[in-house]
Every structure is written in C-alpha cells, then in structure tokens.
Design brief:
CATH architecture of the largest domain: 3-Layer(aba) Sandwich
Distance between the termini: 6 Å
Order of helices and strands: EEHEEEEHEEEEEHEHHEHEHEEEE
Largest sheet: 8 strands, mixed
Strand order of the largest sheet: 1-18-7-6-2-3-4-5
Strand content: 25-35%
Number of strands: 18
Length: about 300
Amino acid sequence: MIKIRSWKSQKVETINLDNEKKPYTVAFTDHNEHDDRSDWTLQYLESLANKVMCISYCPLNVSIQIGSQSFGIRELENFELVSGRVLVDATSLALPELLHIFSLLNKNKRSFDVVYVQPTDYNEKRETGIDKVVSFDLSEDGLGIQQVPPYIGMSTNSNVFFFLGWEGHRLGALINSDEFDTNNMTCLMGTPPFRLGWENVTLSNNYRQMLELCNSSNVRFKHAGANDPVRTYELIEKIHESSKYDRRSLCLAPFGTKPAAIAAAQFATNNSNVVILYDYVQKVKKRSSGTDLVHLWEFRYSE
C-alpha cells in the first residue's frame, strides 16, 4: 500500500527553475496548455526530471497511453518502469490518470512524489443581473457520470461520498441519475479553502442541489482542507468502515479539489472494494490564472 510520508509547500516565486541536479528519473504529466500554472509546471518538471512523459486515459476504449505506448487497463502492468525516483504531476493529470499511475507504482512496489500547483485565481463567468450567483467557467460537459474501471461495483446498495467543487451541475447530474443511491449520501466541503472566501463559492454554486438533497434524503456533510489529502483520506477511511458495517459498498465521487482527488486515488489503490465515479468533463482553457503554492507529497510504499 502507499502512504503519505511527508508534505512540503512553498511559494512559486521562491523556486529556482535552473536546477542542474535532476533528482527524478521520470515525471508523469498531461501538459495541455490550459492555464498559467500548467505552463509553469511543465518548466518545473523539466528542471527536476531527466524525462517527462505524458499520460492520457481514454474512457471510450478503456485504455491508457503513456508516451507513445497504449495499454488496456489490465495490460498496464506491462509498462516497463525505469529505475530511479518518480514524480507525478497532479496539477494537470485528471482523476483517472492518477488512479492508474498510483496503481501501477503500487504494484511495482515503488515509492514516488506527487506535485500540485495551486492557482492564484479562477476565471469568473461574465454575467449580468442583480441576483446573479458568482460562477466559474471551469469545464465543458463530458461523457456523464460513469464508474471508472477497474474500480466498479454495485451502485444500487451503496454509500456515495461526493466531493463538492464549484460546478453545481456535476452534483445535479448525480442526484438526477437513476443508477446511484443518493438517499445515504455524504458531501465533502473543502474547508479551509485555498483562499479565504472560496468556501462561499462552493456553497452558492451547489445551494440548489444541496437543498434538494436535504429535503429528500439523509445527507451528511464533512470538512477537510481543500489542499489536505491526509485529512481527506482519514474521512474516506471512516466512511468506508461505516459502509462495511451497513453492508454497503462505498462510491467515491471526487469532483472537488485535486488534493482531495489525490486522497481518493490513494484510497482506491489501497482498497480494492471501492467504486470510483467520474464524469470526464473537458477542462476549459485559461480556466485559472497565476501560480501560488506548490505542494509536494512524498508517497512511500509499504507491505
């Protein structure tokens, strides 16, 4: 299994990109020029690693591409990992890619590091009207909510743990789905947020959906820091134990912050009986601006 051993954070402006000694053999990313931080992160990875490889998951044919090689998810273990230290870029990699690279590294009994760069701000939608809700243009519709192979299972008798983000329509899609049981649902709030006041954006953009849940189901709310995968993992573990006691499966829907998604990917790697949900939304270009804190988590493999 994999555990977080240490966590370091520093401001972007304190980091020197002219690094002559490269401590990592390979860094995994999915650079796609979405915003300022993805461009900076690519430079950061190139300053730290001898080789940078792109990873991309295709939900249509259930395959993952690493560099120029393509694998079915059950053939991923055939990818030959080079020796040396590994760095995973969670800034640009989405949940499915994180799940599979974590699983690959765990099966190979490899320790690794994960980096995530926070933005300075997210770009607000331009809307008019006195009663408008401040919303953000972060993603375009994807394939809809699906189970991510091989993290699949029965969805009718399950506890759903949904990670709230800034797009209420993603929670609405789950509520309106006939496949998933939202009668016993837990929602995760990322508090404290990356920046003071951002928790209000989460509440305002999910207000209608949360009101619907409160009126029709037994919904519970949990809190963990928006950039804290350690606390998020602990909450997942507690809900997982509760689900086993109730003889229900656990469905994780990590639609909130990326550090929370890191915790979900870590937990799924360590526990095979978890269902992972994702909707494969497409990130909007220039969705955020600036670069703020850089987080580096040291993951260690243990028997």
